[in-house]
Amino acid sequence: MNTTKSKKQIYGLLGYPLIHSFSKTFFNEKFTAEKIAAEYVNFEIDHIDLIKKVIAENPELCGLNVTLPYKEAVIPYMNEMDETARMIGAVNVIKFIREKGKLRLKGFNSDIIGFTDSIRPLLKPEHKKGLVLGTGGASKAVWYGLLSLGITPQLVSRTAKENVLTYEELTPEIMSEYTVIVNTTPLGMYPHTATCPPIPYEQLSNNHLVYDLIYNPDQTLFMEKAANQGATTKNGLEMLLLQAFASWDIWHQ
Fold this sequence. Notes:
30% of the residues lie in helices and 24% in strands. It has helices spanning 22-33, 51-57, 83-88, 111-119, 137-148, 172-177, 221-227, 237-252; strands at 9-15, 38-44, 61-66, 80-81, 93-99, 102-108, 129-133, 152-157, 164-166, 180-183, 209-212, 232-234. Strands 2-1-3-5-6-4 form a 6-stranded mixed beta sheet, sandwiched between helices. A 6-stranded parallel beta sheet has the order 9-8-7-10-11-12, with helices on both faces. Mean pLDDT is 95; it is low at 2-6.
């Protein structure tokens, strides 16, 4: 676990594992370019309860981003929640509010902003229903994001749950009806680039919009297989950029 002792403002990323961190590079380059007296640190913790240690050891902390697997597990540590984060049930931005010597943590969700703003330009009239692959914290933001865009979402998981389809239940009829498909699972993420969600790729067509929240590699196997069937594809890099911009706005609003 990284800790930093300095007078400058500290921001950071909470998650496990943090093999590669877009956020750390992005924010530290921003701080250097804009001459902001701040540093962005990776806090790789193997249990969510260690957030208390991170906060105690870093009194200069002003804000945190939250990534896998803690977007839902971090909620009990919040003193308050933004309405959107409460509705979604997942937090990926924490604002540190210090008043009268007391610290309050407020949870936000900027994933929904990044997702909706990045997928909106690709949407066509035929995109009325969407499959959301995965049921973790990111899937919740995507679910509400699709709803806000007028698209009816349907969760898909490896395990059978109420109101959730399994991959085995993805019939040709469902695949032709649900023309937006979003991968919110880590399948295909570096270094496991030879993996992908087990959807029936042969059922995809040029009517389909296939979106992967993963940004490393640039083109996942999921995207490659979809593109081979004529589908429009997009990775999660722009979403990540947009949610990072939104994080900075949240910390400073």
